[in-house]
Amino acid sequence: MPSKETESIQLLQGTLDLIVLRTLASMGSQHAYQITNRLEQVSGNLLNLNQGTLYPALVRLEQYGWIKGTWGKTENNREAKYYAITRAGQKALGEETQRWRRMAGLVEKLLVEEASR
Amino acid sequence: MKYLRRIFLRFFGLFANSKAEAELDREITAHLQFLEDDFLAHGMTPEEARRAARRAYGGVEQVKQLHRNERAYQGLASTVMDVRYALRQLRKSPGFTLTAILMLAFGIGATTAVFSIVEGVLLRPLPYADPDRLVVLGDDLVGSHCTDCAQSHVTTPDIRNYMRDTHSFLHLGGYQRAGFELSSTGDPVFVDGTRMSGEVFPALAVAPLVGRWFTQQEDDQHQSVAVLSYGMWRSRFHGDEKILGTKILLDRKPYLVVGVMPRDFEFPLMPGHVNNSELWVPLSPQPEEFTAGYAASWNSRMVGRLKPGITPAQAQSDAQLVAEETMRNYPGFMRSLRIRSDVKLLHEDTVAQARPLVHTLLIAVATVLLIACTNLAGLLLVRSIRRRREIAVRLALGARAAMLLRQAMIESLVLSIAGGLVGLALAAGCIRIGISLLPETLPRVHEISLDWPVIAFALALAVLTGLVCGLAPAFAAIRTSVNETLKEGGRTGTPGSGHGRLRSTLVVGEIAVALVLLTASGLLLRSFEKMRQVDLGFRVDHTLSAFYDLPQKRYATQSAVDSFTDTLLRNLRQLPGVKAAGISSSLPAAGDGGGIAITMEGYVPQRDAGLNMATVSLMQGDPFQALGIRLLRGRFFTESDKADSQLVAIVNRKLAEHLWPGQDPIGRRLRRGMQETPTPWLTVVGIVDDVKLGSPDAGTAEQFYQPVTQQAISEGAFASAGELTATYGYIVLHTDTPPEQMENSLRAAVRDVDPQLPLIEMQTMEHVISGSEAPRLFNTVLISAFALIALLLAVMGIYSVIAFSVALREQEMAIRMALGCQRQGVLHLVLISAAKLGAVGCLLGLLAATGVAHLLRSLLFGVNPFDPLVLILSAVAMLSFALAASALPATRAAKIDPIVALRGD
Description:
The structure holds two protein chains of two kinds. Chain A is an alpha+beta fold. Chain A has helices spanning 2-7, 15-27, 32-43, 54-64, 87-116, and strands at 30-31, 67-73, 79-85. Chain A has a single domain, classed as Winged helix-like DNA-binding domain superfamily/Winged helix DNA-binding domain (Arc Repressor Mutant, subunit A), CATH 1.10.10.10. The N and C termini of chain A lie far apart (38 Å). By secondary structure, chain B is of the alpha+beta class. Helix content of chain B is 53%, strand content 15%. Chain B is built from 29 helices and 21 strands. In chain B, the strands form two sheets. In chain B, strands 1, 2, 3, 4, 5, 6, 7, 8, 9 and 10 form a ten-stranded mixed beta sheet that branches. In chain B, strands 13-14-19-16-18-17 form a six-stranded mixed beta barrel. In chain B, a hairpin with a 2-residue loop joins strand 6 (247-250) and strand 7 (253-260). The longest helix of chain B has 44 residues, at 765-808. The radius of gyration of chain B is 38 Å and the shape is elongated. The interface between A and B is medium-sized, with 22 and 28 residues.
C-alpha cells in the first residue's frame, strides 16, 4: 500500500473542476459516489482522491451554475443527490478544455525545449 | 457574471446555513451508505463495513468544513457566529448587560447632545454662501478701553468712506440695529429691524424666498423699501405672497415690501440679543448723520465679502489707508481721536463669546464619557474574571487565544453599539431640552439638531469605546493560566494580583476624573453665589419698567415730545399705588449702553493716557427714587434743572473716585467730548452709588447722569441741528403693590396720551435681573448636571468593583472569621481598602483639577480657580461618596456566615 501512496498524483488546483465536468458530460447525471468511482476507475487508481474531496468542487460548480444537483433514487431504492451538467456547464467545459490544452501544450513544449538544451 | 453570482450566493450562504448543513449531512450519509453497501457486497460483516466505509470516506468533519469554506465566506460566518454567541451570553446575564448598555448610553447620549450643540455653534458654517470669505470691518478706538471691543464698530461717515475707498472687497456694506413701530397690521407693535446698505445682501449671497433684495441704488436714493424675515411674514402677514408690492407702516411712514427672506436667513448674527431682526430697510443715512455727534458715534457695524485671493490681513491694511484719510478729515472737535481698522472673519466675530462655555462643555463631556468607558471596562474585567474557569476549559479544549480575544472584542462591541444606539435616542431628547435651556446669547441656537455627522461621531465613539474597553479585559482573559485556574477547583481564594491592580487603577482613575468635574461645578456654584451677593445698587422688588420709542413722523418737534413726556409723567404720578415715577434712557441690568468720551476741569492729558470714557444716562421725573438708586451726597435733579439754568450732572461713585480721587466732587466740573471739543461745563451736584448696568457679574461702569432737558445744550458741537431729545426711554415705577398688578394701569396711562404707542418689554425689575443672571445660571446648572452624572457613574463604578472584590474574597473573609476575626474587623478591612483607593484618586483628581483650572478662569466670578474651600469640600465629598459606595459590600462581607461560605463550592 505505501508504494501506491508515493505513486499517486496530487491534482493541480482547478483541474478537479474540469475532470468533474468532463465526467458528467460523458456519463450523464451522477451522484458523488459514482463520480468518485468513475474517476478512480479511469485513472487506474493513480489519482489519490479522498472520497470527501469532491464536495467543495461540487458546491463550487453548482454556485457557478455549471452543474445542478437534484435528489433522486438509485435502483436499490437508496436516495442520492444526482448532479447533471447544465448548458452553461457545457459551454464552460469547452472553454476550460481549450484552456487546459493550451496550458498543457505550453508546459510540454517548455519541458521538451529545456531538456534538449 | 459567474463570479458575481458566486459572490452573491456565498454571501447569502451565511444566512441559509442550517438548510445547507442539513442538505450536506443528507448527502454525506447517502455517500457513506453507498460505500457500506459496496463493502457488504465484498463480504464484510455490517459492523466491519460501516467502519471501512468511514475509513474510506475520510474525516467527515473535515469534509464538512471544506464544504463550508467553499460554500460561504467563512471569515464573515464566524463573525456572525461570534455575534450570535455574544448575544446569547449577554442574554444570560441581563443585569450586567443592562447596566453596561445604560451606562454607555448615558455617556454617549450626553456626549452626542453636547457635540451637536458644539457642532451647531462652533463648527457649522455660517448660513451664508462661501462663509470663509465673509469678514467684519470695524474701528478700534485707540485708548477707549471699552469693554465691548470684542466687536468692533464704525461711524456713519466710516461706512461711506470704507465703501467708497477700499479695494479689497467684492461687496461691503454697513448696518445698524433699529427698532420700528409697525402699525399697519392691527395693534401697533414694536419690531426689531436692521438698517442696512444695499451691498450687504450680495455680500451675504442668500437669495430671497420671494421677491428681491433692495439694491445699493435704492439705498443711495433713500427709497422706502423693506425686506421681511420669514418669521415676520408668516406671523404678521399669514405667509401671503400678495404682500409684495404692498406698503407697511414703519414709525408711521409707508415702506414698500419688495421681498421675503428664507426661513434660515438670520442677520445680523448678534450674540446678546434676544430678538432677531424681523425686517431690513435701506440704511439711507440722513445728512445729519455725517456731522457732529453722529460722526463720533461708533454705533454701526460693517460686513463684507473679500475679493478672491485677498486675505483678511491684506484687507485690513487696505482699510487702514482709508481710516488714515478719515482721521485727516476729522473736524477740529475730534482731532485727537485715533482709530485702527480691524478686519476679522465673520465666523470668529460670531462665536467668540460662546467659546469658553463650549470648551468647558467639551471637557465635561469628555470626562463623563471617560468615566462611562472606565465603568464598562471595569464591568467587562469583572466579567472576564468570573468566566476564568470557562475560558480555561475552552483553552484546554484547544480554543485559540486569538479566537477568545476576538470573541471578547465582539462582545464589548455588541454592548457598545447597543449603548450607542440607546444613547442616540437619549441625545435626541437631550438636545430638545438643551435648546430650550440654552441662553439666547448662543448664536443660531434654534438651528441645533441631531444631524448625520453627529450620529457618525456617536457611532464612531461607540465602536472606539468598545474596542478600547474590550482590549484590557480580553487580554486579562487570555492571560489566564489554564492549569492554575482548573487546579483551583473553583476555590477563588486570592484573585490574581494583576487583575487586582488593573481594577484598582480603574477605580482611582474614575475618582480622579469625577473629582475634576466636581471641583469645576463647585467653583461655578460659588461664583453664582458670589454673583447673587453682589450689591446691584438699585431696588429689585416693587419696581416696574417698560420701554417706549416715539415715532418721528408723529412727534416731529421738541415741544410735541416734551408735552408727551410731561403729560405721561403727570398721569403716572397720579396712579394709585405709585410711589415714584420717572423716565431714564438706560435701565440697570438691561445692558451697558456703551460709553462716551468726557473731559474734566483742570485735567492735563498725559501722552498716550487714552480717553476718559463714561456711560451717560438721561433722566426725567424721579427715576432715581423709582429705581431706588442711593444718593451718597448732594442732591437729585429737580424740576428747576431746565435747559436755560445751570448745567448739572450727577456722577456715580466709581467715576468720582477715578476723576477726583480723595476729593469732594460736589461743585467740580466735567464736560462731554475730548479736550479739543467745544462743549459746555456741567457742574456736579450729587454722587450716587454704583449701579450694575449689565449682569451682576460684569464690571461696574463709570457713569454720570444728566437731566434730559439739558442734553442738547451740553452736547455743544456734537449736537446736530434739529435733533430731538427725550424721544425714547424706560418708564420706571416704584409701586406699593406687587408690580405685576400695575401693568394694566401703566398701559392705560400711556394709551391715554398716545393710543397708538406700543410699550416694549414691560417687566418687573426682578424679571430683568433674572434675565441678566440667566447665562451664568445656565453655565452653572449645565456643568453641575455633568458633575452629578459623573459622580453617579463613578459611584456605580466604585460600587461594582468593590462589591466584586468582596465577592472574590469571600473565602478569605470566612477563614478570617473562623480564626476569630470580628465582623467589625471585616467591615474595616473592606472600608480601609476603599478609602485607600479613594485617597489616591482624590489626590490625583486635585492635581488634575488644578491643571485644568486655567480653562475655567474666564467662567468664574469672584472665586479663585484654586479656591481651597471648594477643592477641600469636593475632595471630602468625593471620598465620602466612595466610602458610601463601598459600605454596602462591606456590610455584606461582614454578614458572611463562615460555615456556609467555607462549605460552598
